[in-house]
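agent> call fold_tool(seq_1)
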Amino acid sequence: MAGHSKWNNIKRRKEAQDNKRAKMFTKYSKEIFAAVRNGGDDPSTNLRLRLALSKARAANMPNDNIERTIKKAKGDQDGLTYEELTYEGYGPGGAAVMVQALTENKNRTVAEVRLAFNKNGGNMGEDGCVAFMFDHKGYLEMNRDDTTISEDDMMLEAIEAGAEEFEYDEERFIIYTDAAHFEDVKHELEQKGHVFSSAEVSMIPQTRTTLSDEDATNMMKLIDQLEDNDDVQNVYHNFDITEEQIQHLTIG
């Protein structure tokens, strides 16, 4: 599962280089809008809204943008609503891909998602073709440079907080939780002074797929094209990028 962390690290680096803040804010606004429409505007009783607000604030989305979006969602907005869609398929080399979208135009979105798959050596599949390869879990990542705690002590604190799994490497601690208990685990660990570089409820792949250099390059292009789509909220995959491919991506 550590590949999830490794890919997120590369993705964040690319996002910083590509200056995608405006697109990120658009996606967060749509998620906040949909959360309010589906569950109301009270974060204390609307888990989806709480998670959406947490992500938006972590990305430094201005409070004015957040409040404006909530007000729009509470109003009629000419009947504006977003349909939630999930697309599944295979990327280059057979890597599994799941795409979650929020859209007011289903035909446009499915056409653009299908084009991204076809253009980059992948293909869309039927519903359920890859979903069974992923688990819905909470994901917490902490940079080891930000703490002096040992692996054993961190693992003990994570277990006591209710975590399901704990992993670590030279750069980070990685904690997985049951999706329903994500906020409780996160809150308890934050109460102990831990600060997370990444915290989300995600689709975690059960196994990882390593691709050839050519397939890896096309896979990264596929992910970039999907994430660049304003209708696409999340892209999940089981592609495990190698250190050599990371180096190539960083240099190239």
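agent> call fold_tool(seq_2)
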Amino acid sequence: MNAQRFTALLPFLPSLPMLSMLSLLTVATVAWAVPQPAPGARALPGPTVPAVGRAWPVGTRPAVVRGWEPPASPYARGHRGIDLSAPPGAAVRAVAAGRVSFAGRVAGRGVVSVELSATGVPPLRTTYEPVRASVRKGDEVAPGAVVGTVEPTGSHCARTCLHWGLLSGRTYLDPLSLLPPWLRRSGPSRLLPVLGVPLP
């Protein structure tokens, strides 16, 4: 509530019941104290994500069945991670070095979570589900280390997939941002010709 709107309500305050008047004044005071964003202002960006990933969680370049769709607010609808195509029993790998912070079941699904090394405080945390864990809480894992296998049930995809998430504290981030551009590229690597050297 800005100053003009509040001033416009002043003539009506004496006619309001005392409880309503107090409620209105409380709301006006809180609204006055909270800084309002400038017109056209954008939300502040989330934490910076270092490209520490050295492996895909499954396969070498899996198809992204559903991408990251950040919610507008903490409780709004969205997709807090990405879904990667993966058959049941496929090996699930740690994308970067870290320590297993959770390996167990949540709402009937197997979940593995890894706190990534050297990613600040709080450390970035990756999650993988549905996964039959082959690691325990506290285990240290290297990039590409197998942490479990894709479970045949518990996926929210039409076909079996791996849900891969990334968090900083309680803030969800795009897990693909962990991977450097060279690892995200699809297709085989190609060698460029050296200038001045004729082709064989």
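agent> summarizing second result for user.
The helical segments are 3-9, 18-33, 181-184. The chain has three helices and eleven strands.
agent> awaiting next instruction.
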